[in-house]
Each structure stands twice: as structure tokens, then as C-alpha cells.
Amino acid sequence: MEQLPTKDEGVEPLNEQPSIEMLFRDRLQLGGVMDVIEKTLQSQEPLLPEISNYMIGLGGKRIRPAFTLLVSRIFGDGALSEELSLICAGIELIHTATLLHDDIIDRAEQRRHGKSAYKLYGLAPSLLAGNFLFVRAFGLCSRLHPFIVQQTERSCLMLTEGELLDEMNTDFSLETALEIARKKTAPLFALGALAGAFIPTRDKPLALEMWEFGESVGIAFQIVDDILDIIGTEATLGKKIGTDIRERKPSIINVLWKNCGTPLFERLMGNGGRIECEISQQDLQAATKEILSLGIVEEAKEYAEKLIKMAKEKVLSLQRNTNFNKDNCSDLFLLLDYAISRVT
Question: Which residues have a Cβ under 8 Å from the Cβ of 236 and sit 6 or more positions away?
Fold first, then answer.
């Protein structure tokens, strides 16, 4: 990755971003997906759906189901079929389950401008609600083609491996940061792209190529999240910022910072290893200021932009498919550009 020129000033403040529903004026029929989710969250133990509905009610961009539906519109007629509604609902439930478990692991008190379920309900109920969401998601996905079931298993295995890599790894290398993103964030984008292509076409080779496309998109989205952890605000993101620095995570930002070889990085981050002392608010501010002054945010954004460009080229290379609808690529590409716009 080529080093960009440094800038004297920080990144411009973030603007309020439109919701996915506003972006596409509900052309995606996300309401139908949410109806499936609502009907799925039933249990004889009322606390499980209560916690689940609380998490879903906190909002979120619904990017993963939107992404899946946009891919399907390239290869199909654009209708929200039963299969599409099931996989979209399943992916959103899996994503919500991972958020519940993430907040437990991180002992996070905030989630999307509200209290985390962990903070509100406690560890055990939140953990079990996450398990409940996984079970309900698997129930939905089990009604789909065996190929989709197999790929759902693959995706969830990668998510688990990625979470462990993120928690346990002390190797601050670009390769490690990208591998964590590929396994922790990208799998649900990859699954959505694969399912969005396979359901209307039943073309496995095409679907597997779209998995690769989804991986690139997912890694780019993770890089954007890493950037927002530096330039975002608690008011905008609904959660604390600077978490990757405080927890000394091998994020793309921290890896690029390490590569600059500054004394501040070595003091705070242990030159790439985990050290026990907490990072103070003053040190966090100093770290953020240094990262901004070194042009690291711009470099990371450039890398994300390259991934999105490669992803778009990947999709356009698949026009050999007889069902390919190039006109519908514009909405998919709008979603990809939306991700990058969050850090401009």
C-alpha cells in the first residue's frame, strides 16, 4: 500500500448519513425481511425474544440484507422470493447474535445510541439470547437449498475463527489485520453475495465467484469501521470511539500506525504486543492526533477504495451470465459507495 502525503489538519467532521431505506426508497422490500424476523422470534421463555427484539429495535443499517437483495437483482427479477426473505432474515439474525456476543466479550456498555443488552440484561441472559438468535437463524436457513446451508455453516465457522483471532492475536501485521477482517466481518457479506447470486440462477460456480466479491466488500467495510473508530464521534456512531487503541487491537489503523515506527506507538502499544496498563484519555487523544497527522486515515481509506473498485470490476466481469442485469448494478454500486462515503 503506497504511503499518501501527510496532512496538517485532521479529517473533516462526519455528516449524518441516510438510512438504507432512504437510500433506496424501500425498493428492496426490507419490510418483508423484517416481517420474517418478527415471526421467527418466538419462544416459551419471553426473555429471549425480549432481548432479541431490543437489539433489533436499536436499529442498524440493515446493510447485509440490503446487500443480498441488491446482488439478487443483478441475476434475477428483483422480487422478494421466499428463499431471499429467509436468507436475508437469517443473515441479519446471525449478525445480531454476533453483536450480542461481541458486547459480552468487550464488556461494552453502549450499542447504537442505547445501552447494550449486556449492560441492560446481564451476561447470562445476553449470551443465551445470542444463542437463541443463532438457532432461529439456522432454522430459517435449513429451509433453503443444501448448498446455501453448507455455505452458511462455512460463514459461521469463519466468524468464530475471526473473533478468536481478533481477541488473541498480538501480531500487528497487515496480513493479520486483513485476515481478521476476512474472517470476522466479511463472511456475512460473502454469504449474502453468494446467496443473492445462487437463489435466482442455481449456478454454483457463479455463486462462489460472488463469494469472493462479498469478501472484498466485507473487508472494505471493516476498514471503514476501523477508520470511524478514529474519526467518528460517540454521538454519530452511538458507541465509544478509540476502542481499537484502548484494547490494542490489530486493526488496519493500528497496523499502519505501527509501520510508522513512532515512539508513541511503542510506548502505548508495546511495539505490537499486548501490555497490561490501561491507556488514559490523554494518551488516547495524543494517539488520535498522531494518527491523523501521519496520513494513516487517508491511507486506510485508499485501501478500502481499492477493494471496492476491485469488487465492482469483479461483478462486471460476470456479464457472461445470461441473466445478468447491468442496469441493476447501479444500486449495488451505490451501496458500496455509501460505505466509503461514511469516512468522507
Answer: 14, 16
Which pLDDT score, from 0 to 100, does residue 9 have? 35
Which phi and psi (to 5°) does residue 111 adopt?
A: -155, 120
What CATH number did the domain enclosing 302 receive?
1.10.600.10
- DSSP class per residue in 70-99: HHHHHHS-----HHHHHHHHHHHHHHHHHH
Helix (H, G, I), strand (E, B) or coil at 250: coil
Query: What are the φ and ψ backbone dihedral angles of 101, each rounded to 5 degrees?
Result: -70, -35
Residue 4 domain flag: no
Measured CA to CA, the distance from residue 92 to residue 314 in angstroms comes to: 25
Q: Which domain holds residue 311?
A: 20-341
Residues 2-55 have pLDDT tens digits of: 333 233 333 333 444 555 555 565 566 889 999 999 999 999 999 999 999 999
Specify the pTM.
Answer: 0.90
Contact 306, 340 (CB under 8 A): no
Identify the bridge partners of residue 110 per DSSP, sorted by sequence position.
115
Domain count along the chain: 1
Q: Which string of DSSP letters, residue by residue, matches 196-220?
A: HHHHHH--HHHHHHHHHHHHHHHHH
Within 225-279, strands assigned E span none
